[in-house]
């Protein structure tokens, strides 16, 4: 791992514009389960079609709402880890650091990252299921049992996250694509590379000539296009990868 970190530090250290794509793995060490890890992943215990689709919500709103209330509680009790903090601290060392996340847990913002693109929404926000335009970020007011109704149109409120079968916000996706196409290097942390269009961002960066560096304890779908694959956990690797270079 030491050789991979040294090589990755060279690539990242010579970039002026760094783009970073994170996935559920970066929050694993904060105690938030990933989706796909066999033993602890959320989908190992629940059916995604029931809990993360509009059809599933309409079929049993209380079940889906309670599941999200449980996840909100998990996130509220979690703390950003050394990986989130290393990325936040690195912002000031680049001309531009674009942090693009698939996570909905808000831990990057809580660690201090300011320029953040949340591709899949944020679990602490709530929107109207019928898209009347109502949206709110006041998780402390949300009930944990039955889902609340929309104060504007009377429909159900749902978490403001992208469910299976839904499109990403086109403006958000476009902003992420632009950052991938303009960066000098892209760091990809804790993602299986199975969820599109997010997994297409490193492909875009590579196509535009930027080296891609992956950080993951396991092999991923994106390793084939990576210049360097660092095999390790985010909270351990990122502080080493992003620590300020010693003055030469
Ligand atoms: P995923 O569950 O598909 O993959 C997680 C990846 O993280 C795996 O490749 C795994 O090997 C890796 N990993 C596990 N522990 C790690 C660690 N300590 N350090 C680095 N990597 C580690 O997650 P994904 O690729 O982000 O896929 C997609 C979907 O999961 C996204 O839509 C995202 O919104 C959603 N999700 C988000 C959260 C969250 O907000 N924290 C949690 C679960 C799922």
What does this structure look like?
The structure is a single chain. The protein has 248 residues and is of the alpha/beta class. It folds into 2 domains: 145 residues, TPP-binding domain (Rossmann fold); 72 residues, SIR2/SIRT2 'Small Domain' (2-Layer Sandwich), CATH 3.30.1600. It contains 10 helices and 9 strands. The protein has a 6-stranded parallel β-sheet with strand order 3-2-1-7-8-9, sandwiched between helices. A 3-stranded antiparallel β-sheet has the order 5-4-6. α1 packs across α10 and α8 runs parallel beside α9. It is elongated. The mean pLDDT is 93. The chain binds nicotinamide-adenine-dinucleotide (NAD). Nicotinamide-adenine-dinucleotide binds next to loops.
């Amino acid at each position: 791992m030491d050789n991979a970190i040294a090589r990755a530090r060279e690539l990242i250290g010579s970039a002026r514009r760094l783009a970073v794509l994170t996935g559920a793995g970066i929050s694993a060490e904060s105690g938030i389960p990933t989706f796909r890890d066999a033993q602890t992943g959320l989908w190992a215990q629940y059916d995604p079609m029931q809990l993360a689709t509009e059809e599933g919500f309409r079929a049993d709103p209380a079940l889906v709402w309670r599941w999200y209330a449980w996840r909100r509680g998990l996130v509220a009790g979690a703390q950003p880890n050394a990986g989130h903090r290393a990325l936040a601290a690195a912002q000031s060392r680049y001309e531009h650091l674009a942090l693009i996340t698939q996570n909905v847990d808000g831990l990057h913002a809580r660690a201090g990252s300011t320029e953040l693109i949340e591709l899949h929404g944020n679990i602490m926000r709530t929107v109207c299921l019928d898209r009347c335009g109502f949206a709110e970020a006041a998780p402390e007011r949300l009930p944990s049992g039955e889902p609340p109704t929309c104060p504007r149109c009377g429909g159900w409120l749902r978490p403001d996250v992208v469910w299976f079968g839904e499109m990403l916000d086109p403006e958000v996706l476009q902003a992420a694509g632009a950052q991938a196409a303009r960066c000098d290097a892209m760091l990809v942390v804790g993602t299986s590379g199975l969820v599109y269009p997010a997994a297409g961002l490193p492909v875009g960066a590579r196509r535009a000539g930027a080296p891609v560096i992956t950080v993951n304890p396991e092999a991923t779908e994106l390793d084939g296009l990576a210049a360097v694959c660092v095999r390790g956990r985010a909270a351990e690797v990122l502080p080493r990868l992003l620590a300020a270079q010693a003055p030469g």
